[in-house]
Amino acid sequence: MKIAIGCDHGGIALKDDLAAVIKEMGHEVDDQGCYSTESVNYPEFAKVVCSQVINGNCDRGILICGTGIGMSMVANRFEGIRAALCHELFTAKMSREHNDANVLCLGARVVGPGLAEEIVRTWLATDFAGGRHLQRINMF
Ligand code: RB5
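Above: inputs. Below: predicted complex with D-ribose.
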């Protein structure tokens, strides 16, 4: 898959860690920034990553800010985006199986890099279950 990834200044170190993990898993990374620790506005990066998913340039997106909250709020305003803010493995798995989440949001000030890497591995490896869950996601 091709994965769009974006962050603000609070998430840049984790973004770089996760980009390496995504590549190691055999996926392509579309890094949409930011690229330094200079203070930036997270909505700008959320918009670019969501656009890459909506227009089909990327299969899924990953957004990282300090808490993940701002990124998830912005991402879920876009039609066609189902963004999940996940800080443990169970919701990461279920966001894919039941909700077909196409954007994963993470808070770099909430989880350490080891857990974040496992969340990303789980999220990328889990398929949507379809069936009754497809009917439900088609309702919004
Ligand atoms: C930036 O300081 C911080 O507000 C941002 O990374 C994020 O946590 C917002 O939701």
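The domain at 2-137 is CATH 3.40.1400.10 (Ribose 5-phosphate Isomerase B; Chain: A,).
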